[in-house]
Model the fold of this input.
Amino acid sequence: MVLGFGGMVGGCRTTAPGVRLAAGDESVSFFGSGRVRLDFARLTPIGFSPGSWEISESGMARVRAVDDVLAGGERVFLIGVGDADVPAEHGRQQALARALAVRRWLVERGAPSDLILVSGLAAVEAEGVIGGGSGPRVECAVVR
Done:
């Protein structure tokens, strides 16, 4: 389980080396006195085409904004959102692939990998739980 604001939703795991996920990450807690706040207002969602996990040209400016936040030493949480018209498990895998694509781009350009957390949610899990936007995307939040 990954994320909960009044409830819990499932998350995806990956075997990719060096990737820190919210699932099972004890440094990020959404419950109790250690609860963290995710600031979605500072970073605009990165949109993806349905069925795709390649960052579009229009999405690059938003990815660069995430890079700027990381350069300031703040942690970010990249939460991919799957396509609405696929089964939930497939949507979670799409979502995780999207979040990992953004993470990979940032790390390849020198962003510190230990400041980046990733997860993936099926579209139905993301409704009303994370930042704004609709459709397949990666929501970017500063972890406070």
